[in-house]
Amino acid sequence: MSGDDHPDDAGDAVARSLDAIADQLDATLGLAVLDQPDGVHAHRKAVRRLRSTLAAYRPFFDADTVRRLHRTYRDWGRELGEARDLEVRIAVAERFLDDDDDDAAGARMLDELRTAYRDAHRAVARRGVSVEARDRRADLAAFLDAPPRTAKASRRTKRGVRRRIVKEGDRVLRRAAAATSGPGDDVALHELRKAARRLRYAVESVTRPPVGLFGAKADALAVSAEQIHDLLGDVRDLLAFARAYEAAGGVSDGPAARAKVEAAEKLDELPAAVDDLRSALAQFR
What we know:
285 residues, mainly alpha, CHAD domain
């Protein structure tokens, strides 16, 4: 990559952003392995940022190489996800359950979640320092040392990158149309959440240092994508708590009911969030 302040072309801009993400992976791995506060979350987010950036800008690099690297970090991300999802479920349960109440179902559920988290984190700690982890990082380093560029990587920086971001934005809107066409389609909502996350990271990877392209319009697009992602993540977590609490024998008109009401209220916010993204994308085009 060029040592100049500005990227040479679209491929150089993305390669620089991937270099920065690799630094984030290195900085957060130890925190995750040692179970430091927010450590698993921070490292998982770095993994997601890497995979989202690779996916969004894959036309700039050799498809098979990107596919292999994306798949390798997908498997690691899933292991991190098991631990992180349990962390979130514990936090949600603690918010809805009152320790002073005689709630045997809630206490039992929390005990099971905490035990499951300890087991999941032990797996993260083992795999985070394994030979597989070393090889995974070496594969990423090899990619970054000599990015396998395609002809599309040579497009003018802003024009080439903008085109990819717009395609990701349109993808989110298509997922939104599918998710809002019928009530309670969990699969469609999940696909929308993933698409919004990918758009967010695709934008952030090229608008933050060391790349720093675009400006306020791109920032607004990333914020609107994050809003959809976070909103649907909250809905998923609330409903997961409600289902687990009821399965543990909790009363249906207690904490589970409150969680379901909150989830419904958040889901009601989705159309407005999608409208925000649509407007932000129109301004960015």
